[in-house]
Amino acid sequence: MTEFSAAAAPAAGAATPEDLLAFKRAFRRHASGVAVITALDPDGNPVGFTATSLASLSAVPPLATFNMARSSSTWRAIAETDRVAIHMLGVRNRPVAEKMAGDNAQRFIGDHWRAGPGGLPILDDVTSWMVGRIVERLHVHNNAVIVVHIEAGELGDDDAPLLYHKRQYRTPGDVV
Amino acid sequence: MTEFSAAAAPAAGAATPEDLLAFKRAFRRHASGVAVITALDPDGNPVGFTATSLASLSAVPPLATFNMARSSSTWRAIAETDRVAIHMLGVRNRPVAEKMAGDNAQRFIGDHWRAGPGGLPILDDVTSWMVGRIVERLHVHNNAVIVVHIEAGELGDDDAPLLYHKRQYRTPGDVV
């Protein structure tokens, strides 16, 4: 076992480069599903990003959470709007996962989306999408946990869920 | 596309059986990594559960989140303690994922764990574990989002990360 410690950080909220590396190494052992969050900014322009933090919080009522940095280009929109769209991505959607994680000026250039309920940007051909209302924004340092009450959505054609692990997109493998 | 709506729910916070099914069907299109959260209850007994909601919130400072129901057998401990251990599971750890999701009276019967920092229960042979301090407990209806500031941990032997999708444990497959 390789031990690491963040307790020796020089100040509350700070971390040494070694702690940062250790935390990242630990989380690199974790895999996640891939989602895309979209919204409209205060000027009505579409914004969005690829998220690996989407999780269910409760089924009754239907609540989901995702995490983001408040330094993100999308933060201003998420801070000011009360509505978002959440998309579940299948393996066939890898190109859009990369696009929505790339240059933010390019993310909505193309015909891969359309305006859905309330004008929210809805990505084409995803395995599922849901729209909902932001009910909590928990600020922790320069980050936020967002809680969404899901109000509607659609199921698309099924596909193997897109995975992210060690900076690579993957398909699920065998049942173990 | 199969449309569903939770907006027609009879009351705020409520959902119809159809909404519940639709939300669950949408989240069944999402895959997740598998973690185990452990803590000590107020009597000093080990408690824990298998979580599919673990996510990184920030690397600097090192913050992680997980979600849970406040009706869970582990909630009393998480509500009252300020320290938890988070374990990343590899494919070789599938048996312990099942054990920590099963009968809560049986979860710590066996030699699959030991007391670690501060007496926290640490599972053997996981790919990584971290201990930290709970810095936020956000209550939303009968659920909670828990934010943990990671303070220390260890990396174990590497392994393919254990996945959960459509009620089955899986290994990751090909890069796409």
From TrEMBL, chains A, B:
> EC number(s) for this protein?
1.-.-.-
Q: Which UniProt keywords apply?
A: Oxidoreductase
InterPro entries reported in the protein's UniProt record:
Flavin_Rdtase-like_dom, NADH-dep_flavin_reductase, Split_barrel_FMN-bd
One GO MF term:
oxidoreductase activity
One Pfam family of this chain: Flavin_Reduct
Q: State whether keyword Transmembrane helix applies.
A: no
Q: Which domain of life is it from?
A: Bacteria
Which EC main class describes this enzyme? Answer: oxidoreductase
Report domain Flavin reductase like positions: 27-171
* Protein name, UniProt field: Flavin reductase family protein
- Organism name: Luethyella okanaganae
